[in-house]
Every structure is written in structure tokens, then in C-alpha cells.
Amino acid sequence: xxxxxxxxxxxxxxxxxxxxxxLMVECTFVKPGKGQGLYKCKLRHLIRNIIIDRxxxxxxxxxxxxxxxxxxxxxxxxxxxxxxxxxxTYEQYELSSQVxxxxxxxxxxxMICQVLLFNNTPIGITPPNHVVLRxxxxxxxxxxxxxxxVTKPCKVETGAEFTVxxxxxxxxxxxxxxxTGEYVExxxx
Length: 189
Hints:
- The structure is a single chain.
- By secondary structure, the chain is mostly beta strands.
- Helix content is 2%, strand content 55%.
- The chain contains one helix and 16 strands.
- The strands form three sheets. It has a six-stranded antiparallel beta sheet with strand order 1-6-2-3-4-5, with no helix packed on it.
- Strand 10 and strand 11 form a beta hairpin.
- The radius of gyration is 21 Å and the shape is flat.
């Protein structure tokens, strides 16, 4: 098993603690007046999405997590299950709505996503940074209301709601940033 020494600790490192996968969110080195240096780390659990704080002494080691990211195509949603297919091996993964979490808002059939596997079990997905979605419903905009930053809610083809500028109409294609959930721009067909 691959291990990381404290000198290799850095943000973005995927480690395993007590058989559970964690992502190192933050790591700072502290040198007290006397004694060994300390590494104060914030770790996010990759399955339960909780953050823990741990302190390690110089020379401590952590196991590398057996985490793999594969490209997978979103096929369809069946109740609370989301079905993805690995684009290389054609293996299918069933992910529950808890695993998919808020990313359901961006999923369109046929979309290519990154599926995170821990010991060959899917534990999360990462949609593309930007997605283009069709507006299914929004309130009509008031004529003459040209004040800056006037926004309104709109419902898109996935069933999710986003806040968009007042000039957006039903049938428009809008680009959404999946990292922030914010409107980026209107897209021409």
C-alpha cells in the first residue's frame, strides 16, 4: 500500500484513515518553540462529506486512498437511482440520490461526467464545469424594467431552479456553472 509522509502532505491529497477515504482540504505546518514540527490538517470525508481536523507530527504517515476517477456517461434516472456507464469498459454504475447529491440539477441524458470510485464502488460524481440547459418555465419579464441586476427564478429541463437575469424567456438555452450553481450566459442555438 502506498503511504504519504508528512513532508508530502498538501491540499488535494486523497488519503485513507481507518479504511475510509478523505480529501486533504487544508494543511499547515506549525513549528513550536521546541520539539517536533506539527502538521494541522483539515480532511473532508469523501462519502459522508464531513470535515475533520487532525494534527500529525513530523515523520507520521497516512495510507493513500484507492480512489480512481473514470469518465462515465449519464444514461437515465430511475426513481432515486442514477445510472451511469463507464465510457471505456461499458460497466454500469447505479448511484443513489445521496451520492449524486446536488449534482442532479445538472444531469442531462448522454452527459459525460467524472465518477469517483473507492475500491471500485462509486462514491461521487463531478459534472462538467459548465452545462447548457433549456428553460422550461419562468415568469415573463416586465417591459421597460431595464434596471441593472434584475433577476428571476427559472425552471430548467432537469427540474432544477436557477436565478437568471430578467431577459431570459421560456425556451432559451442558458449556461450554468456547476461549481457555483450560478447563471453564466444565454447560449444561441
